Amino acid sequence: MSLRGERAYADLSVAPPTPTAESRPWWDALRAGRLTVQTCGACGTAQGYPRTRCVRCWSAELSFVEATGRAELVTHSEVHRPGQASWGAVTPYYVGLVRLEEGATLLTHLLTDVLPEGRRPRVGDRCDVVPVQVGEWVLPFFRVAGVRPGLPVRDGHDAVESTVTDLVPPE
Amino acid sequence: MRAPLATIVGIGELTPRRSTTGESSLGLMAEAAALAVADAGLGPEDVDGLLVGQQYGEIPMHVPASVAEYLGLRPTAANVVDLGGASAAGMVWRAAAAIRAGMCEVVLCVGGAARPATGFPRSSYRAPIREYDVPFGASGANTTYAMIAQAHMDTYGTTAEELAEIAVRSRANAQLNPAAIFHGRPITVEDVLASPMISAPIHMLEAVMEAAGASALVVVSPERARGLGRAGAHLLGAGEKVTHRALSGAPAITTGPLKDAMAHAMAQAEVGLADLGNYQLYDCYTIVVGITIEDLGVVAPGKFGPWLADHDFSPTGDFPMNTHGGQLGFSQCGLAGPMSHVVEAVRQLRGEAGERQIPDPRLSMVTGNGATLSEAAALVLGGTS
Ligand SMILES: [Zn+2]
Known about the structure:
The structure holds two protein chains of two kinds.
Chain A: H1 24-31, E1 36-40, E2 46-47, E3 62-66, E4 70-79, E5 93-100, E6 105-111, E7 126-134, E8 137-144, H2 159-162
Parallel strand pairs in A: 6-8
Antiparallel strand pairs in A: 1-2, 1-3, 4-5, 4-7, 5-6, 7-8
Chain B: E1 6-13, H1 25-39, E2 49-53, H2 63-71, E3 77-81, H3 87-100, E4 107-113, H4 129-132, H5 141-156, H6 160-174, H7 189-194, E5 197-199, E6 202-203, E7 213-220, H8 222-228, E8 233-242, H9 258-269, E9 276-280, H10 286-296, H11 304-308, H12 326-330, H13 336-350, E10 363-370, E11 375-383
Parallel strand pairs in B: 2-3, 2-4, 9-10
Antiparallel strand pairs in B: 1-7, 1-8, 4-7, 5-6, 8-11, 10-11
Helix pairs in contact in B: 1-2, 6-10, 9-10
Bound molecules: zinc ion.
Zinc ion binds at residues 40, 42-43, 45, 54, 56-57, 59 of chain A.
């Protein structure tokens, strides 16, 4: 179990993000400590990464809306042998998918430092965004809070994952 | 059952090896192509259609022209099929479609890869994964499929032992295939769980081993096949579906697009589960086999683990699966890994699988899976006699 907090990443030398014209405002907001989610003015969809069009209705009426930063853990993995050698400096570490309250799903790096000793992340765990300095960049990592989120079930998502609370086996 | 859409009349497959010393991917593909065309009873002059896969490293662009030139072909229909592990199955229905559209008559489908000890450089820019996954420490297939497996475990209680069992059975079938890279090396559940953890819950022995090799298929119309007088495998139905690139874009984590692709293939073939007698299911990782069995409808979602104990994957078992050892036992040699499932189905349907022949193979379900459980292709194949 890693007790690593967000300060462990500042000196890490790893591949940085590669912003495009579409995503620049999202990365700029993170630099200011704010997680935003690109949202469609026509249909209300919040999409995972910025695009020129809404992923659902193809409207171009998109804006960056500040996210609550609360999310539910969709899945995770403890990485022992990273695909990029530069991440070997902090192995093992957790990555995972989180579903924001707004509905978008992001891949992220998970902070597990507040979980009790021996308690691993589980699907359905509540997570909270933590803007973390990694080299020259600020990335939206998420801290696993280790309590059940009680997020509402949303249409269009895997029903299986929305009912995980009752299905998680005892450790 | 419907009338066949096309017929696979030739197969060619090189024995995988761990690495190559100077050989080119083009050279390996040419060897496999020559075997397949000869197996069909045809010559190079007969080939007028060409389907190839993406070739990172050696041939980043213009793959069909490069392969055609190397083989002296002048195809009247040529394409890259860029669906990762679904490319081989995806080639077979595209070959049928090209023939039925009147574009060509004899289609060579070929894939393979050399594997120099130093490896080929991979493209450094792969949008959008490069921007939204790599900077977080998530890179490569291991971590992606680990997250898929972990979701299945957390959600359904699937155990590490159940996942390991799939690797054990693939190795067991590989003991009947002298060409398999793990022939002569069976393993136990304990071996799998004791192998190094790559990205939890995936252990090293639950991932395919990369190798060098090549495979090829020759596809013609059923009418042309009859004239060749050689047993083959009829394409009875196909299905395909592509849903996302990065796992964060997946509509669901513990089920994939193969569910719809397999259902489409069976509906097109006008057959049901009871008509299938062998299963050549894409297996880059153990979890993919479990999810595919669930998505096929053989067992309820989340239940493949307990189901394993009552079913047998061997050639004489009730659910003969990946009788060549799967890629977990055979190896993954570029696109020849995915194609190995098609080649094995043809061998079984011809009755030419030797020591591992399934007594009554009936119809084959063949699957391909690419990227992050996101590119899917499925085939229903049947014998010609
Ligand atoms: Zn919209």
